[in-house]
Amino acid sequence: MSGDVKQPESTTYREAMREALREALRSDDRVFLMGEDVGRYGGCFGVSLGLLEEFGPERVRDTPLSESAFVGAGIGAALAGMRPIVEIMTVNFSLLALDQILNNAATLRHMSGGQLAVPLVIRMTTGAGRQLAAQHSHSLEGWYAHIPGIRVLAPATLEDARHMLPSALADPDPVLIFEHGSLYNVSGELPSTVQTVDVDHAAIRRPGTDVSLITYGGSLPKVLAAADELATDGISAEVIDLRTLRPLDHATVTASVARTHRAVVIDEAWRTGSLAAEVSARIAEDALYDLDAPVERVCSAEVPVPYARQLEEATLPQTADIVAAVHGAVD
C-alpha cells in the first residue's frame, strides 16, 4: 500500500504558477493566456515557458507593447464569455492599463445593473529586491486593493501559487494576482494532496502568543525569518499571511491581535496611504482595547526604488527591521 502514497513534489514558485496555467488551459477551452512575451519567449519571468508549444498561438497569445489595448481586449473577451488570463509584465506597467481596470473591468457589473460580468484574471509581477530599478520594482498592490469591484490576491507560498488560479477563474468578477518577483525561484515541496486553497481568508503561517506579524506576498519569507530569530529571544510571534488583499479578512487579524495584544504590520509598499495603514486603522477601530502597545509598521522608504544593491536593500523592509519593530512593541 505504501507504493500508492503520493510523495510531496519538489518544485519552484515559478513552476507552480506554470502548472496552474497549464491545468487551466487543459480543463477549459474558454481559457487563454495573453500578454507581452508570454508565448515564444516564455514570459518575461519564465512562467509560461513551453505553453505556446503545448497549446498553440490561439491559446497563448503574444501581444503588442500596449497594456491598455490588451487589457481592454481581455475585458472584451470576458464579456463575450471567454476566461482570459492577462499577464502584465510588472505592476509599474499596469498603470498604463489603470483606466481599463478601474473604469471598465471593476465597474461594468455595477453600471449594467448586474447584467454584465467580467470574469477576467490579470497576473502581474510586483516588488523589488532584484536590482531592476524604479520603473520595475514598486509594490502597488494597495492601490488596487482600494478599488471596489475586483478581488486582489497575493500568493506567497508554493501552495497558493499552484492553487489560487482555479478560484480566480471561477470568479464572475475581475481578479488581480500579484506575484512577487523575489518568490519565483523559491523552491520546496508541494503536497500532492492539496487541490484547493482558501482565497477568502488570511492564513496563520505560524502560531504565536506575544505579537501578531501581519504581512503578505514577498515579505512573508522575511517575516518568518524574523519570527525564527525572535523565538531565540523568547518572543513567540504569530505570522498572518493576508493572501487576499481585497476583500480583506479583517476577522483573522483582529482575532490574532486579541490573542497576542500586539501587532506589527509589514508591507513593502510606501508607508503613506499604504495597505499597512489600512490594516493598522482597522485594528485601532475594532481591537483597540486588546492592544497593550501601539501598532507598529515596517514599510519601504518613501523614495523610488534605487538600482544599487546596497541602496535597494536599505530601502526595503528587512528581517532586522522587523525584529527591531517587534522589540519596540514588546520590550
Structure description:
The chain has 331 residues and is α/β, with parallel strands linked by helices. Helices cover 37% and strands 21% of the residues. It has helices at 13-27, 51-55, 67-79, 91-94, 98-105, 108-111, 141-145, 158-170, 220-232, 250-260, 275-286, 309-315, 319-330; strands at residues 9-12, 31-35, 60-62, 83-90, 121-126, 151-153, 175-180, 187-190, 203-206, 211-215, 237-241, 244-246, 263-270, 296-300. It has a 7-stranded mixed beta sheet with strand order 3-2-4-5-7-6-12, with helices on both faces. Strands 9-11-10-13-14 form a 5-stranded mixed beta sheet, with helices on both faces. Strands 1-8 form a two-stranded antiparallel ribbon. Helix 9 (220-232) links the parallel strand 10 (211-215) and strand 11. The longest helix has 15 residues, at 13-27. The mean pLDDT is 96.
Strand order of the largest sheet: 3-2-4-5-7-6-12
Percent range of helical residues: 25-40%
Task: Profile the largest sheet.
Answer: 7 strands, mixed
- Class from helix and strand fractions: alpha/beta
The secondary-structure element order is: EHEHEHEHHHEHEHEEEEHEEHEHEHH
Basic shape: globular
Write the layout of secondary structure elements.
Blueprint: E1 9-12, H1 13-27, E2 31-35, H2 51-55, E3 60-62, H3 67-79, E4 83-90, H4 91-94, H5 98-105, H6 108-111, E5 121-126, H7 141-145, E6 151-153, H8 158-170, E7 175-180, E8 187-190, E9 203-206, E10 211-215, H9 220-232, E11 237-241, E12 244-246, H10 250-260, E13 263-270, H11 275-286, E14 296-300, H12 309-315, H13 319-330
Parallel strand pairs: 2-3, 2-4, 4-5, 5-7, 6-7, 10-11, 10-13, 13-14
Antiparallel strand pairs: 1-8, 6-12, 9-11
Helix pairs in contact: 1-8, 3-5, 9-13, 10-11
